[in-house]
Each structure stands twice: as C-alpha cells, then as structure tokens.
Amino acid sequence: MSVNLSTAAFYDKSNRYLTDLRGQAAKLQEQASTGNRLTTSSDDPVAAARLRSLSRGERLAEIDQGGSDAAMAEMSLVDSALGSAADIVIRVQDLAQQAANGITTDSQRIALGVEVADLQRSLLTIANGENGSGHALFGGQGVGDAYAEAGGVVTYQGSGASKAIDLGEGQTVTPSLTGPDVFAFEAGGTATDLFAVLGALSSSLQGDGTDPVAASRTALEGLSAGLDRVTTAQAVVGSRMNWVELMDERRTTNAELRAEETKDLGTADLATTISKLQEVMTVLEASQASFVRLANISLFDQLS
Amino acid sequence: MASDLLTIGAAGAKAARAALDVTAQNIANASTEGYIRRSAVLEEVAGRGVFPYGSDINLSGVRVGSIHRNADAFRQAEVRRTASDLARSNTDLSALQGIETALEDTAIFDSVVEFEAALQQLSNDPVDPALRAVALARADAMAGKFNIAAEGLDAGVDGLHFGAAADVGQINQLGAELARVNVSLARATNGSTDKAALLDRRDLLLGELSTHADSAAEFAADGTVTVRLGGAGGALFVDGNVAGTLTMDIAADDTLSFAVDGAAVSISGGNLGGAQAGVANTNSFRARLDTLADGIARTVNQAQAAGADLTGATGQPIFAGSGAAGLAVVMTDGGGIAAAAAGSPANSRDGTNLAALRQAVATLDPAGDMNLLLFDASALVTARTLSNEALGTIASSAQIVLQQQAGVDLDTEAANLIRFQQAFQASSRAMQVATDLFDTLIGIR
Predict the structure, then answer these.
(1) How many CB atoms lie within 10 A of CB A39?
(2) How many other C-beta atoms lie within 10 A of the C-beta of residue A11?
(3) How far is CA A122 from CA A115, A119, B151, in A?
(4) How far is CA B244 from CA A28, A228, B208, B228, in A?
(5) Domain residue ranges of chain A, discontinuous segments joined by +
(6) Are residues B30 and B104 in the same domain?
(7) Judgement on whether residues B49 and B86 belong to the same structural domain of the protein
(8) B369 with B426, same domain?
(9) Distance CA B337, CA B231 (A)
(10) DSSP structural state of residue B79
(11) Vertex A155: Cα angle to A154 and A156 (nearest 5)
C-alpha cells in the first residue's frame, strides 16, 4: 500500500502523540510534587482499597492507644492509692502493737484510739479516690463514692465489678479493683473489712467497755490479713500494667508495619518518579523537535 | 472530420486549467473538516472514422470527464462505527468517574470509620457527656456524607439525562438535514463538483450522527442515503426526503428509552448508548449505597431499643429516613445513646448494650462494605479507562487511515500544481505550433 500521508493526518497524529506525552509528564509531575502515587482510587483500585483498610486500622488503633493511656493513668492512681492504704495499715499495726501490751495507760490508749480513728478517715478518703474521669477508683461501675460512712459504720455502695477498657485486638484490661477486692477479707472465720477492724479498734481503745488489749490482739490478726489483701491487689495492678505495656509495644510494632505498607502502596518513590519524568521529558522534547522539522519541510518552500 | 491542432491545444489548456482549479481547491480545503480530496478525471476526445475515411486521424483533444472524490465507503463506515463506540465509551466512562468522585470525595468511608471510632472511645467511659456528644456528631456527619454522595449520584444522572436530551435534539436536526441533502443529491449530476460537495456534506452528517447513536447507512446509486437508528436491524430514520422523529422517555427509575415515530428502538452506541449504560451503573451503585445506609440505621436503632439511655429509659432510635439520601440523625442529645443494659438505673456506667451495639456494627461491617463499594467503582473506572484508551486508538487509527486515502497532502498538491502548469504550457505551445503552421501555409507564394 502506498503511503499517502495527508497533511491533516500528519498534524492529527503528531498532536495525539504530543498530547499523550504531555499527559504522562503531567501525571508524573503530580506524583513527584504530592508524593502520592494515587490521585484517585481508579489509579490502582486494589492498592487504594488496602490503603483505606490501613487508614481505618490506624484510626482505630489511635482510639485503642487512648484507652490504653487512660488505663495506665488509672492504674498508676490505683497503685499509689494502694501504697498509701498499705502505709496506713502498717501504722495501725504499729499502734495496735503498742496498745496490745498491758503497760499502756488508759489515757495513752485513748490517744492511740484517736489516731486510729483519724487513720480510718484517711483510709476512707483513699478508698473514695477518683480517677481522671471523676469516677470512684474502687467503686466498680457504681455512681458516686465507693464507700459511705453513717454513724461510724463504713459500707461499700459501689457495684460488683470494675469497668474493663478495650485495648484492641479483642484484648481488654480492668484498670481498677472494687472496694471489697482491696479492703474486705476474712479474719477468724468471719467476713470483715479494714474499716470495720479500724473502727472496732478505735472505739475499744477510746473506752467503749470492751477489753482494749484483747481487742488490739484481734485487730492485729485482722490487720495482717488486710495488709496481705492490699499488697496482693498492688501486685495484681502491677502485673496488669505490664500487660498494658506489652499491648502498647505490640500496637507500636503494628503501627510501624502499617506505615511501612502504606508507604509501599501509596507513596511515589521520588528517585523512580523523577527519572521516569526525565525520560518522558526527553522523549517529549525529541518529539517536539522532530515535529517542528517535519512540519517545516514543504514542497511549496522549494517552489519559486 | 479531420483533426484540428488548434482545438486539441485549446482543449488541453482548458483541461489543465480545470485540473489546476481542482488542485487549488484541494489546497484551500486542506484543513476543512469532512473535505475529501478531489481529482479531475480527464478523458480523451476522439471522433470515430466515417466510411470511407475510417483510417483518417480523428483527434479532438481532452476534456474533464468528472470530478472524482477519493472516498472509500468501507473506511468511512469504519470511522463511523469506531467513533460511535468511542462516544459510547466516553459517556459511560465519564458517568463512572462521576460515580467514583461522588463516592470517594465525600469521604463516606472515613466518616464510617470515625463513627466506629467514636463508639469505641465511648465504650471506655460510657457516661462521659463529651464522648456521647462526639459519637452523635460523628453519626450526624456520616449521615450527611451519605446524603451528599446520594446527591452527587443524582446530579450525575441529571447530567446524563440533560446530555441525552441534547443528543436527541441533535439527532433529529441531523436527520432533517440528511433528508434535505438526499433531495439535492437526487437532482445533482454524477461527477459534478456540486455532487462531490453534497457527498462531503452527507458523510460529515453521517459521521456526526454516529457519535450520538449507533446508526446504519445504506447508499443508493445516486448517493442518497437510508439511515437506520440502533444498528442495521434498527428503526428506519431517514428514507429519501423523509426524516423520522426520535423521542426519549425517562422512566421513574431514571432509565432511558427511545422511540422513532412512536416505535420503540433500542440504541446501544454513541452518546445515547453511553448515557443508558451510565444510568444503569449509577442505579446499581445507588442501590448498594442505599442498602448500606439502611443497614447502618436499622442495626444501630435495633441495638438502641435493646438498651437503656443515660436517664434509664429505653433507648430511642438514633437514625431515621430511608436510603442514602434520606438518612438523618434524629437524636438531639448524646445522653440518648443506650450504652447500658435494659433496666439499668440512671447514669449507669454499665456498657453492656454499647458493646452489643458495637458488636452489631462490627458484624454489619459498614466500613468493609463501603471499601468494597469504592473498590468496585474504582476498578470499573480502571477497566473502562483501559477499554476507552483502546477504543480511542482504534477510532483515531480508522480516522488516520481514512485521511491517508481521502485527505489532502500538500506536497502531492504542490507537485500537481507544477505538473498541470507544465501541461498548460505545453498545450499553449501546441496552439503556437498550429499558428506557425497556418502562417507557413499563408506565406506560400
């Protein structure tokens, strides 16, 4: 077939090639300047779908991290509250010890009893401590204070279980303990709690008619069991803190993996993009130059 | 009749002049759309010998027999067919890109994730009024995004309807114009410049018609054309000097249907074919979006009804309305989110029902569905872009192949200019020789 390239066809063809090259160059330039390989999902539907899943994972992990941070903060509060409670119990043990020996005078016992009463109030304040959101630390999921005092009797009014916090990946942690978990125990076969033990000791020492020495000895038994309970609770909270830290590390690792995959999928590699752009620009310049030269050749120029 | 050198020379000069005119016309119309290169077909004029002078020389020169139009009906048909395919693909693709934009740029996916995240955050402290307000605000934002996306899809369909109505108007105009050209063609003499110009006009109109709808053309010997819409087996649209009327009907579900003079016709090519495909695609994506929106509203509202809100009362619906366009948040106070189990007292920190709600939402997986919806839309755009590029190349090649045969090449025309100028000069020279011969005869003494 003889080639009769019509003038219009020549310009059409050149126009198409040059437009096509310019389009490629513009796309590469956009990738280089935004740093993103994808402008719309249709540039690479599979990668775009994966990127959306990754961004969702990232967003939900942020919430998990928030929950984890809140749990850590609450556990620190619980831990320090438990430490103070233990200090109080140890001080009361000290006082009970003094009262238990027979040589203490009545007035000295009364002074000891007053101090025990003060310590009981301190313990109540600690037990009614609040977390960052204003909820009772040891009140479970109840509303208001964990313990209420009425006529010298301290009673638990929270709920039976503490609120668990979601750490993601189906894992939860319960950052706090309920009041009975920390303060209630059995002494001499009967259920009691630290408030009752301290209350009984204080009133006996202040002369309610019971034998103060016997009462002090009974109290020592209870205090030792109570101290066990408080320190056990402290150990539980400590191990839970470790667990949360472990989950934090895991979350960080996952976030790094996600970031890596996001980078691989959605980021334009600058070196590759720029060298491709250079290549296209070279071809474009060559096409333009050859177009100009070809378009300038006309038989009419040779006629005179 | 004997030969006459002067007549022969004059005829040659005249023919060369005519050929130069045609060449100049070609040069002038080198960039005219639809112009097909003409060439002057020259014929020898020679008398027949009459008895008893049968062996006498009987030459009378040359004349322009006809103006040839270098058109190839097959290539022209190819250009029309490929242009029709390309126009359909263009309209279809731009509708799909509109769908992708409506779904993606409104960031529905992100708003669904934000809603999930807000519920998750609330679960860590179900009584926090700030977290409750945030969850409700996220629900409201999500409903808004669904509404915007639905509006975007509707706007796309409106655009398709508008474009299709304009196409129908243009098709009717082209049909009427073709009928008029048919009348002129029937009267014009074959081989005349008038006929060539009319044929150019006819082919240009047919080419334009094919971008609006798939059509089939049949040509009579005199160049008149019979046009059918909807392919070779379609409805008769232009027959002789009669053009039909194409009408469009929009059904309640937005789909388009067409009829020529009241008789239904199925159109699958050109802009109209693309508009039909675009409406069908939009409908399918809108149905999926509606299902998703309804699913979210139903799941959340059901879970709400199973729990107790901050006042201890049974949870009320958060969402109302149906479909993506109708989805709306009716709850005004974050306290209404039923986080606690049914029967819980007021201000309960219990999060049992919120966990159930989150579980129900996780089972429904609206983010996953939305991701899939976006993936399907973008994958469709990618696939159609590829086929659109292929169709563009095919249509462009067909156009170039036709141009190579039917278009004007300025270099060829420049060569023709010289050639016919030389022919003119040579014929003039022949006339000069005739004069010289006559002078010689006169000069005999």
Answers:
(1) 11
(2) 15
(3) 10, 5, 63
(4) 50, 100, 17, 10
(5) 54-261
(6) no
(7) no
(8) no
(9) 60
(10) H
(11) 130
Task: Tell me the pairing of strands A153-156 and A147-150.
Answer: antiparallel
DSSP assignments along A144-172, one per residue? S-SEEEETTEEEE-S-SSPPPEEEETTEE
Of the pLDDT bands very low, low, confident and very high (cuts 50, 70, 90), residue B184 is very high
The token pair at B132 is 């409750």
**B313 and B355 share a domain?**
yes
Mean pLDDT of chain A: 88
**Do B270 and B413 fall within a single domain?**
no
Distance CA B329, CA B336 (A): 12
Structure tokens at A28: 């590469």
* Cβ–Cβ below 8 Å for A41 and B347: no
Give the closest-approach CA distance of B347 to chain A in angstroms: 7
Work out the minimum CA distance from A119 to partner chain B, whole angstroms. 31
- Chain B (271-300) residues lying within 8 Å, Cβ to Cβ, of chain A: none
Alpha carbon distance, N-terminus to C-terminus of chain B = 28
Tell me the pLDDT of chain B averaged across its residues. 91
pLDDT confidence of residue A4:
63
Residue A60 in contact with residue B117, Cβ under 8 Å?
A: yes
Q: Is the pLDDT of residue A234 over 80?
A: yes
Give me the total of CB pairs closer than 8 Å, taking one residue from chain A and one from chain B.
136
What is the token pair recorded at A253?
A: 């690792």
CA–CA separation, B42 and B40 (whole Å): 6
Which among B231, B234, B237 has a CA at the least distance from the CA of B261?
B237
Do B66 and B187 sit in the same domain of this protein?
no
Quick: pLDDT tens for A91-145.
999 999 888 887 888 888 889 999 999 999 999 999 888 887 788 888 887 778 8
Instruction: Using alpha carbons, select from B423, B74, A39 the residue that is nearest to residue A47.
Output: A39
Helix axes B352-364, B270-305, angle to 10 degrees: 160
List the single residue in A9, A41, A56 with the smallest CB-CB distance to B367: A56
Task: Kindly state whether A263 is in contact with chain B, defined as any CB-CB distance less than 8 angstroms.
Answer: no
DSSP letters for B152-191: HHHHHHHHHHHHHHHHHHHHHHHHHHHHHHHHHHHHSPTT
Residue B100 has its nearest CB partner, among A6, A42, A52, at A42
Residue A225 has pLDDT above 60, yes or no: yes
Fold of A54-261: f41 fragment of flagellin, N-terminal domain (1.20.1330)
B79 and B57 assigned to the same domain: no
> Token pair for residue B428?
């003039």
* Owner of token pair 């249907």: B257
Looking at the complex, does the CB of residue A13 fall below 8 Å from at least one CB of chain B?
Answer: yes
Is the interface score ipTM higher than 0.85?
A: no
- Inter-chain residue contact A7 with B408, CB threshold 8 Å: yes
The whole domain housing B31 covers: 5-70+407-442
CA count, 13 A, side-chain hemisphere, A271: 0
What's the number of domains chain B is made of?
2
Give the integer Cα–Cα distance in Å for B46 and B317: 101
Contacts of B177 (CB under 8 A, 6+ apart): B205
Q: Is the pLDDT of residue B1 over 50?
A: no
Q: pLDDT by residue (tens digit) across B194-236?
A: 899 999 999 999 999 999 999 999 999 888 999 999 888 889 9
Q: What is the mean pLDDT of residues B90-103?
A: 93
Q: Which residues pair with B250 in a beta bridge?
A: B256
Whether B305 and B435 share a structural domain? no
Residue B438 gets the label, from left (phi > 0), alpha (psi -120 to 50) or beta, of alpha
Between chains, do A141 and B418 touch, taking CB under 8 Å as contact? no
Residue A177 in 3-state DSSP?
A: coil
Between CA A292 and CA B316 the distance in angstroms is 74
Mean pLDDT (whole number) for B411-439: 91
